[in-house]
Amino acid sequence: MHHRFYIVSLSLILGLFLVQCSGGPTPPQDLIPPKKYENLLVEFQLLKSYQTMYQDSAKTVELRQKVLKHYHVTLEQFKRSDQFYKLDQSAEHKRLRKALQVLNVARDSIWNVKNHHPKKMSKTEKKIRDRYRKKQKKSKSQSSDK
Predict the structure, then answer these.
(1) 3-state secondary structure the chain
(2) Interval 23-82: pLDDT, tens
(3) Which of 2, 51, 72, 93 is most buried by a 10 A CB count?
């Protein structure tokens, strides 16, 4: 009798172990590509800052809808992708560090222009700044075309 109990217990434990090691969670069908997801993280952080500064939740919701529309993403799709990406914490930390770096470069760029103090930048910071400026020019040209 005890022998049978041990066999059943061992089988259950092995079954659970195999289920846990079977390749991890499956991504949602409409998963946002990593680069677009990183860009959305930056945009949403800017929206949080806007809402904190101006305390205007109605305008923040309107801006969030514009950001989602610009990236051709729904809020639900972003939430599903966000939940999936957060499962891999080390990769999520890398994405967040990258987003923070983009925000810092944008802030420093604005600060330097405002105070006329050009800062010596690393090659990585220059690449990020140039991508940011290119994206801003593209956004302006698309909005002026409408």
Answers:
(1) CHHHHHHHHHHHHHHHHHHHCCCCCCCCCCCCCHHHHHHHHHHHHHHHHHHHHHCCHHHHHHHHHHHHHHCCCCHHHHHHHHHHHCCCHHHHHHHHHHHHHHHHHHHHHHHHHHHCCCCCCCHHHHHHHHHHHHHHHHHHHHHHHC
(2) 668 888 999 999 999 999 888 888 888 888 888 888 889 999 999 999 999 999 999 999
(3) 51
